[in-house]
């Protein structure tokens, strides 16, 4: 693949390129380029939304370039300096490194490991003095930072913005300097931060990175962008049968986007299938995605199980969990089993009629369950869990 | 003097006290208090405007408390991080220490040296890491900092505010933590910064300092506050005859303020003199001030000289300067002699008819002067300089 071909394909798929000239020249230089992607330091659970950009990185790897992931552990290890957020607990050094390793394991489902590097920004930000910070801050203005969408909105609404928050975009930008990034990629919602990197590199005497932004994948709800916290995601680490079922739930109107952004199936092909039979198209998509992340055999099993559940039967082999014998309120059984992430989510799930116990829908979260014999819990259509007690 | 008396006098003279309760409790505690005043790291030229607050500090010293001056050398040694200001050249460590010494020499014209301490904020700010900066920034919000008058005005007018500038009030505030300040004093235009110190101390677990603000002294122009850059000042280090002449130029309407804020003469007395004879009141004021800073003898000489000049004569003993023999354009002679601070100021002075050479007004800055015999230069009414050549 020559530079021109790489350029054409990225130009076709990217939302924006800053600037096309810069990007073209870098590709043409014949140099092995450093492609930067910023990563969150908290425990990663990558989903198909992330895969959109990761697949482009894979493409750039195939064109001969190196990927560097920057784990933003510097702020992660500080937590919330204002002390207002109780959820932003500071991470320890060990947690950060462990999360980094897990991140590497997940991204190398898509990327070539030998061309993928993980670095931690505490390595350089942690060494900066107050002088260095002032000098970094001197490169930009308050108005410029307040332009960022979320700041602008909060400022206009008189919502409080901690002064420390103004420094975050600058740190991310300085990361580009630290790794001498040639290209930075990200979702289109990251444009502001990525361009800041470009400017700060100039200020530090570096050639500015080219910035490539790619579309955001809408979530399964068809409204918000895919995100773990909104529970509208398909995780790339999820079990094949869960993944399959979720793929079948992609809204019809979005199936084309999902095909285009997350699968290898060419547009001519998936468009034709979608026109002929939208339900069959869902199966094709689900099989393609599960095959991509778990292989063909798992995909076949996922399909079989999906059909069995759809036909109203119990799947052949539900997940299993073991709990101590005893009396439980139903909501506690559900949260202890891991079928819900918290007691309050379990209560809500039950109240909304989303839980079946031994094939009977239960609506009372406080129902007492005297647990000793195995129980089959079912959440929604496809999540089965066999509970055993000892 | 007991705590109650100190409190009453400060309450009479201060513009604001934050809070009166805190201040009263601190005085009543019987503890020797640390009174903070922030100082500029550039070469100091203290004037009567500064003396307003310094005289209050002297009063607090007499009541048994210690004064700590914080020289803001940390930012002074950095210069302008944005690189936009060509005038804010970074100071060296040696310059800062020298300026600090000169500062000490000047303030001890008013203060007791043994109860006066000078410290440099680079000692603590220079040791702060990026973590520490974030944690400091986390104590406040963007909106809070933008409330400061000058920021609010600039932001509203879309004038650019460097992000580093937002950190300056925080540094000054952190200085209060570093010296465990009990009281901070300042001009009424400093209220925002002083209160920020109060808040930040609370955040760092200290008892918040009491803040006392005092009136700003209007300059000789009767419009702006007294300031060196506006050339409307009476410097406390100026020669007696210059000081005397400037005191005579205080606008009639402001003479009461000058008496009250900068002299030891009680109100009943100066008010009576002003009512009887405003010109005599000026003489009384000028003599009082020159006596304060140069002693009674110098004051008498200053008065004699003033009368001589006013009568059109040459003063008996002008200042002297020595320059190398040679040909000079007139403007260069004036600037080399120190009678003007720069070539362009010298040119302007001459063009505007402000310069007499050997009692003849000269209007051509480029007039060639073949200098070998002594020359008497006169700037304005009262500034005489005898130039000699060798």
Structural class of the helices, strands and pairings of chain A? alpha/beta
**Largest sheet: spatial strand order of chain A:** 1-6-5-2-3-4
Could you tell me the radius of gyration of chain A in angstroms?
A: 24 Å
Oligomer: homodimer
Q: Tell me the overall shape of chain A.
A: globular
The largest interface is: A-B, 37 and 38 residues
Q: Could you explain the architecture of this structure?
A:
- The structure is a homodimer of 390-residue chains.
- With 390 residues, chain A is an alpha/beta fold.
- Helices cover 46% and strands 15% of the residues of chain A.
- Chain A has helices spanning 3-13, 20-28, 48-62, 73-78, 93-107, 122-125, 130-137, 142-146, 149-156, 168-178, 191-203, 240-248, 255-262, 267-276, 278-294, 296-310, 330-337, 343-351, and strands spanning 16-18, 34-39, 66-71, 116-120, 183-187, 210-214, 319-323, 326-329, 355-357, 360-361, 368-371, 375-379, 383-389.
- In chain A, the strands form three sheets. Chain A has a six-stranded mixed sheet with strand order 1-6-5-2-3-4, sandwiched between helices.
- In chain A, strand 9 and strand 10 (360-361) form a beta hairpin.
- In chain A, helix 12 (240-248) packs antiparallel against helix 15 and helix 15 packs across helix 16.
- In chain A, 36% of the residues are buried.
List the helices and strands and how they pair.
The structure is a homodimer of 390-residue chains.
Chain A: H1 3-13, E1 16-18, H2 20-28, E2 34-39, H3 48-62, E3 66-71, H4 73-78, H5 93-107, E4 116-120, H6 122-125, H7 130-137, H8 142-146, H9 149-156, H10 168-178, E5 183-187, H11 191-203, E6 210-214, H12 240-248, H13 255-262, H14 267-276, H15 278-294, H16 296-310, E7 319-323, E8 326-329, H17 330-337, H18 343-351, E9 355-357, E10 360-361, E11 368-371, E12 375-379, E13 383-389
Parallel strand pairs in A: 2-3, 2-5, 3-4, 5-6, 7-13
Antiparallel strand pairs in A: 1-6, 8-11, 9-10, 9-12, 12-13
Helix pairs in contact in A: 1-2, 10-11, 12-15, 12-16, 13-14, 13-15, 14-15, 15-16, 17-18
